[in-house]
């Protein structure tokens, strides 16, 4: 296993905003608290407070969420460490997908583990716990109910009438889908272990959130990862003051708009806030909350309460209320002793619109860190590229640049051949002249011989050019195929390929160690030869 870094600016994966964030441009500083470097983490640790009472609530909620799972010693240690004021979390989050979803979900988790290890090296007197935030309350089922493996589409069809949180869905239909997945991997050595893992997770009387926790736990528990389901009334109770303030005052809308206006002086905005940035789940449909006059209702028109009864309504229905993309980050920082959030470039972009919301609610703004983007190349493919004179980093060039690179290599060889042919022409003139000065009768036969040689060489040159072009086309096909395995039609490998495809290649502990050792800054792109 070999991990090769690729410069972010040479990867073609990042927007101007993302590259400026990576480069720590001063234009970005007003939109964050601290940079993701040792100095920034020193400041973040010094200023980050989290009460002992809130630690107890978090600990109790997680212990209850983990009930029924076999806990290795490291998981119990991590859980109990949350009670210690010297323990901090590093968080990444994602919607929960069937079979864990696209590869970037895997790399998000690995990035959180890697950063936690790096922080332990830098601050040995503190303890750092990587946390995977399962976005179980998200209701966009169409985003998470499918995957494509070896050109086979697997789709989870489940209760189309239900429009609530995906985590609430039962696992009905997933055991059958697991069987379909097994058929695709039936001939691959080592698959039985993962087959059993999926089968066990998706069987029994569980909901989708519980099943996903079980999967992630089995893959990453030994790396110290904790898995949090925010759909927990104990945790939401800590967030209740902000929920009430949002419903009464709607402060987040103005805060986002003000910060976005500043950001838009140089960049494009990623999100647009609502006047109320909260959802309500009525048992069937999760819908945003709106206010009309003194009445609160859902956007679909379901009456909730009036202003006079709002406090009582929230107290009695807190479990059914959840934040949208604007307030979810605030909720996260309220319930966790968190230092950093790890996200993709798109997530970082919208977080840069949110600091004003955190300031409004007097919640510490975490350090933002780009997740690692990792592209997997098999050793044989890497070896073939090397033989063709193509570096792994070259695959991130566009096709025109790659074509020019390959043609320039063969062009040098043809240029050398042309020089040699020109040397023969010069030799012809010099040789005939010298021979003619001694024996004039040989001048004509020699000239004829040289002319025939030149004619043959010209024909050979033409054939060589044609053959070279054929070889170039074959080489181009191979290189473009390798590039396509990383980036195809604008979609990266980590987005259009899914976790089950790589479980056999990736050894969790080994890759987590590699990422931890190479955690040397934001925005890093890696190619993993495995």
Please give a structural write-up:
The strands form five sheets. Strands 6-3-2-12-13 form a five-stranded parallel beta sheet, sandwiched between helices. Strands 10-9-8-7-11 form a five-stranded antiparallel beta sheet, covered by helices on one side. The model has no long low-confidence stretch (mean pLDDT 91). It has 530 residues and is of the alpha/beta class. It contains 21 helices and 17 strands. Helix 7 runs antiparallel to helix 8 and helix 17 packs antiparallel against helix 18. The chain is elongated. It has a domain of 113 residues.
What's the tally of helices? 21
Uncertain residue ranges: none
Total beta-strand segments: 17
**Side-by-side strand order of the widest sheet:** 6-3-2-12-13
Radius of gyration: 31 Å
Helix content: 40-55%
Largest sheet: 5 strands, parallel
**Structural category:** alpha/beta
What percent strand?
Answer: 15-25%
The mean pLDDT is 91
Shape: elongated
First and last CA, distance: 5 Å
Topology of helices and strands:
Elements lengths: L1 E5 L1 H4 L4 H7 L15 H10 L4 H14 L7 H9 L5 E9 L7 H20 L4 E9 L10 E4 L2 E4 L18 H12 L5 H11 L6 H13 L5 E3 L4 H17 L1 H13 L14 E4 L4 E7 L2 E4 L4 E4 L3 H8 L3 E3 L4 H8 L2 E6 L1 H7 L3 H6 L6 E4 L2 E5 L1 H9 L11 H40 L4 H44 E2 L2 E2 H4 L2 H4 L5 H10 L7 E5 L1
Parallel strand pairs: 2-3, 2-12, 3-6, 12-13, 14-17
Antiparallel strand pairs: 1-17, 4-5, 7-8, 7-11, 8-9, 9-10, 15-16
């Amino acid at each position: 296993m070999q991990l090769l870094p690729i410069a972010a600016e040479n990867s073609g994966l990042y927007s101007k905003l993302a590259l400026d964030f990576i480069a720590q441009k001063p234009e970005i500083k007003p939109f964050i608290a601290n940079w993701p470097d040792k100095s920034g983490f020193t400041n973040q640790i010094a200023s980050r407070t989290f009460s002992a009472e809130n630690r107890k609530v978090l600990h109790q909620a997680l212990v209850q969420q983990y009930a029924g799972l076999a806990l290795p010693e490291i998981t119990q240690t991590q859980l109990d460490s949350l009670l210690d004021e010297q323990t901090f979390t590093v968080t990444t989050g994602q919607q929960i997908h069937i079979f864990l979803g696209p590869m970037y979900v895997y790399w998000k988790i690995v990035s959180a583990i890697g950063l936690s290890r790096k922080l332990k090296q830098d601050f040995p007197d503190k303890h750092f716990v990587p946390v995977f935030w399962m976005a179980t309350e998200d209701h966009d089922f169409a985003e998470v109910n499918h995957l494509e493996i070896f050109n086979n589409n697997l789709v989870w069809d489940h209760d189309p009438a239900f429009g609530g949180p995906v985590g609430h869905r039962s696992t009905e239909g997933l055991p059958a889908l697991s069987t379909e997945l097994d058929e695709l991997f039936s001939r691959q050595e080592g698959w039985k272990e993962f087959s059993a893992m999926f089968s066990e997770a998706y069987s029994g009387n569980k909901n989708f959130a519980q099943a996903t926790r079980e999967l992630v736990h089995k893959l990453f528990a030994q790396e110290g990862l904790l898995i949090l389901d925010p759909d927990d009334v104990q945790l939401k109770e800590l967030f209740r003051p902000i929920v009430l303030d949002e419903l009464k005052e709607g402060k987040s809308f103005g805060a986002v708009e003000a910060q976005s206006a500043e950001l838009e002086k140089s960049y494009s905005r990623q999100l647009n806030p609502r006047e109320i940035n909260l959802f309500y789940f009525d048992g069937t449909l999760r819908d945003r909350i709106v206010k009309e006059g003194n009445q609160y209702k859902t956007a679909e028109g379901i009456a909730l309460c009036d202003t006079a009864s709002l406090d009582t309504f929230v107290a009695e229905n807190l479990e059914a209320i959840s934040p949208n993309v604007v307030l979810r980050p605030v909720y996260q920082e309220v319930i966790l002793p968190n230092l950093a959030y790890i996200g993709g470039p798109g997530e970082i972009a919208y977080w840069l619109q949110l600091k004003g919301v955190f300031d409004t609610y007097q919640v510490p703004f975490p350090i933002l860190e780009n997740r690692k983007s990792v592209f997997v190349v098999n050793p044989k493919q890497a070896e073939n590229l090397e033989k063709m004179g193509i570096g792994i980093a070259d695959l991130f060039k566009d096709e025109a640049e790659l074509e020019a690179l390959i043609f320039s290599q063969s062009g040098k060889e043809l240029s050398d051949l042309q020089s040699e042919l020109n040397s023969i022409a010069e030799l012809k003139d010099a040789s005939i002249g010298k021979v003619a000065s001694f024996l004039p009768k040989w001048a004509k036969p020699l000239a004829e011989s040289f002319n025939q040689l030149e004619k043959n060489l010209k024909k050979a040159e033409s054939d060589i050019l044609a053959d070279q072009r054929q070889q170039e086309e074959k080489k181009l096909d191979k290189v473009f195929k390798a590039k396509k395995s990383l980036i195809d039609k604008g979609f990266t490998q980590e987005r259009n390929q899914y976790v089950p495809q790589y479980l056999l290649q990736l050894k969790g502990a080994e890759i987590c160690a590699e990422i931890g050792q190479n955690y040397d800054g934001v925005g890093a792109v890696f190619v993993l030869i495995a």
